[in-house]
Amino acid sequence: MSAYHPLNAEEAIQLAKSIPGRFPDHAELECREIGDGNLNLVFHVTAKNTADSIIIKQAVPYAKVVGESWPLSLDRARIERVALETQYSLCPNLVPKVYGYSDELAYTVMEDLSEYTIMRKGLIEGIAYPKFAEHIGEFMARTLFYTSDLGMNQQEKKVLAGRFVNPDLCKITEDLIFEDPYRESSNNNYPDHIADEAEALRTDLPLHFEVALLREKFLTHAQALLHGDLHTGSIFVTPESTKVIDPEFAYFGPMGFDIGAVIGNLLLNYAAQPGWSQDEYTQATREARLLEMASDVWNHFESNFRMLWNDDLLDEMSRTPGYQDYYVSQILKDTAGFAGCKMIRRIVGLSHVADIDTIADDTAREAAQRKALAIGKNLVRHHRSIKSFEDILTLIQQAT
Ligand code: ADP
Ligand code: MG
Ligand code: MG
Ligand code: MG
């Protein structure tokens, strides 16, 4: 079973049995493939009559996009696994445990989180996650601080960065987020009723200028090890607990890209609320809760990050008065800009979000699409002048 091929369910069971100590010796195992079928296979292996279970995630060498095949390096399975292990070592409560892997077969065996809900689904159902902001703020502060030149030896950081050279997955981001929405592209995907918006995006040169600056950061600013795909579909939640999965886009990039992913996805759900809430009171409650959550995500990130800086900084130059404030203020600007880019691409680009696309009513869906675009564009346009999270909230209000 060593040369690469996509596993079948029987092979996944054999593999599960070979993981020491995972299942009782004579357990009868069952397997189901539960992935969404775009990029990877996900096998759920359970033992009959017990609670024992594991997940095996295997990369396939192509992405299925609009019926076509997009070749993708299998090395991303190694990158995802090393990222999971790195993040687990920094935040063991917030990341699934890795039990085994094969780089050749491009799979990772990990903790089964089936008791959790994918956050995007939970948010669509209107569920509150009162601990989420605290958890994700801690996750981002710790993973970003300890893999940056602030919390890591600068030579060791360069060596670690060498394990995260991820050109194929970075190209997906570069094309789908920073390129396609701003020009004619066969990758773009939007309904005719918002063709006016798509056209406006293609000709808005002041907006292109801000996107070009953010793209430059994504391409060149190797600030810390990013998760790289930290949307609400990569986060498992319960009201008490949070686990971050799916870091196959991990690479060394700008911290604000991860924070912006979380906040941009909360704002996509916010923009969708008129399509989901049954009455005005519910809508107002959920909208307020989502804005407070976005704000708390930033606040928890910032307080944890400053605490780590004050307690665990490795070098002297970074103690220079004013530098911490400057550094954090830059992360906030980047966060707003990247959040905006992510909102825009989820409306006109290749890959959308269920928060908006599954709104049943056509008028409500179109209103949500326009609202998300208005917020996204406002954040991108003004990201460099943002000084506090209040400024972000003002830009959101002005757009709606
Ligand atoms: P992809 O990179 O293909 O998006 P994900 O890692 O996001 O793959 O996994 C796809 C789906 O598989 C998830 O949305 C979830 O339903 C399921 N899944 C992935 N990892 C786990 C896990 N550790 N425990 C339970 N379910 C999982
Ligand atoms: Mg997927
Ligand atoms: Mg995923
Ligand atoms: Mg993925």
From TrEMBL:
The keyword Amino-acid biosynthesis applies. Keywords: Amino-acid biosynthesis, ATP-binding, Kinase, Methionine biosynthesis, Nucleotide-binding, Transferase. Residues 31-263 form the Aminoglycoside phosphotransferase domain. Pfam families: APH. Catalyzes the phosphorylation of methylthioribose into methylthioribose-1-phosphate. Its EC number is 2.7.1.100. InterPro entries: Aminoglycoside_PTrfase, Kinase-like_dom_sf, Methylthioribose_kinase. Substrate binds at residues 229, 345. The keyword Nucleotide-binding applies. Belongs to the methylthioribose kinase family. ATP binds at residues 40, 57, 111-113, 246-248. One of its GO terms (molecular function) is ATP binding. This is Methylthioribose kinase. It catalyses: 5-(methylsulfanyl)-D-ribose + ATP = 5-(methylsulfanyl)-alpha-D-ribose 1-phosphate + ADP + H(+). GO terms for biological process: L-methionine salvage from methylthioadenosine. Homodimer.
